[in-house]
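call fold(seq) -> tokens
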Amino acid sequence: MPFAALQSALDERAAQGLLRRRSTAQSPQAPHIIVDGQSLLSFCSNDYLGLANHPQLIAALQQGAQQYGAGAGAAHLVSGHTRPHERLEHALADFAGKPAALLFSTGYMANLGVVQALVGKADTVFADKLNHASLNDAMQLSRANVRRYRHNDMAQLGLLLEQTSGGRKLIITDAVFSMDGDLAALPEILKLCERHDAWLLVDDAHGFGVLGEHGRGSLAHSGIASSRIIYMATLGKAAGVFGAFVAADRVVVETLLNHARSYIYTTATPPALAEALLASLQLIEHGDGLRAHLRRLIAQLRGGLRDLRWPLMPSDTAIQPLLTGDNRATLDLSRQLRERGIWVAAIRPPTVAQGTARLRITLSAAHDAADVERLIGTLHELAR
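ret:
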């Protein structure tokens, strides 16, 4: 059998409690959702502001499709760059407080494009050990020298920078770490960039729309700004639609437009999505009430689970990881919650380190206090 080795590897993953399987949602993203025919209270979406099914976004998407059709037809540099794309890039640059912005199809492609375009064999990338897989893949594909530092360890990062001479220096980091929910020490990292003449790529996939004044993201939340910073954020989480963008100085954006392979060699996203995102950006900017409600839910959850035998990891964000440790125990707890009508994703290696399997609870402004209280009560019941 030509694929026996593949099946054997899958069987081994299953034996270790690591085999991944998909569930099929049969209704729009919302706290209450139909999955594989079952009605569930969901705590595993990254739709942090509850915009994915917002009527204004749906209307803007419909209108965009009516005017511009279903697809872009070609890459941005051929014939796929439309007026909605152009308007959205200007709006995102203004919102992020940067001179220019460039749209990408996904955050994964944005990270690949930025790192590959800006550094190469003669250069060095410095990376937090808990960075997202897209940043890890990007630094490997760039062929630059890679120096990884312990999570948020500024002393080690500083030492690695001091030990590196010659070539460009690029520090890459998540702003909100996707599996832990904690924040990068961005002000301290920026100081190190200034001291050692380095650039900083900030992946704000989980901070954009949620943190900072008017949801402007982790840079605003941290109170920092610098031409050294290259800012990436995704548009399928708090923004509720799809895609990603990079905002930076114009020379950086022009460099990406000319050298980022994941931008140059792919079809542009449908212009209708850009119309929906323009509507989303308005809702984000005026969404202080949504963010305040989300903060109240975070406080409610943390207070309600304070004495649970599985500890919540330190996090003030919508990502609230419940540390269970063992792979099979984590899968079993997720299954027991689902049997009681609550959907929380079990996260296991290699996404997280061995021995740190967890339930990744994600909160949304679309949840209400009763939803959170139901989760708290059910987890206490299962802990007993």
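The longest helix spans residues 288-304.
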